[in-house]
Amino acid sequence: MAGDKWSTVSLADIAGHISRREVSPVEVTQNVLDRIHRLEPQLNAFITVMAESALRTARSAESEIVAGRYRGALHGVPISLKDLFLTRGVRTTAGSTVLAEQVPTRDATVVRKLRSAGAIVVGKANMLEFAYGEVCPAYGPSRNPWNLEYGTNGSSSGSAAAVAAGLGFASMGSDTGGSIRLPAAFCGIIGLKPTYGMVSRSGVIPLSWTLDHVGPMTRTVRDCALVLEAVAGYDPRDPGSVPARRRLYAARLEQSCARSVKHGAATSTRQP
Predict the structure, then answer these.
(1) Residue from 179, 200, 202, 241 carrying the catalytic annotation
(2) Which of 83, 185, 252, 270 would bridge 124 by S-S if both were Cys, CB 3.0 to 4.6 A apart?
(3) Longest distance between any two alpha carbons in the chain, whole Å
(4) What confidence tens digit (pLDDT) does each residue in 59-88 have?
């Protein structure tokens, strides 16, 4: 497994390789950063690329995994964040020149949870200004990886382009009126708008507190479930957050698939 072959591998698959120590988080992260360097001029998927901190985090992840302290499916896996998630020490612009120099002193709850899970943030993804409208006056539009003459639609535009182009294995987006779902559809990836209150919006620059949702964007449904497991949960700092017990979404998905396969096999043996 080498080079750009990683660009088509799912998060779940690369996590398996990392957990078995068949590939290093440093190798995977460097490969993603090299791909960003090569494709970003055409795609414009990022506002800020965090190469130095990503490699530093990858080296820490590698040391932890070698020492037997594997945290789970996101440990050592490169991802990105839509640029409205507050990120400690990294500018967070919400796609606007108004916040072009804003450098938060804290992480959004989702960012903190992703870091705790061992994810490696490679950059802050491009977006429509304040997650609203169809133009990007400050940073320019993201391009569709499948056809550079086309856009990506919706405000989580850079996140969708990044995931589709293999510039990371997942991205966190936001959805108020379709801004996860539409870019995901336009770029041929999976985008989830979670149930209201499931994922904290604390530290996420708002468009509408009564309508905003944040959720994962990935290449497969299983990957989406794995990211959701890491970020879902009650947060008292979000007034819309709902207390609920933690669920293992990926395991439930696999159980559901197994039941469907078993049912299909049973029905296929019936005589007409």
Answers:
(1) 179
(2) 83
(3) 69
(4) 999 999 999 999 999 999 999 999 999 999
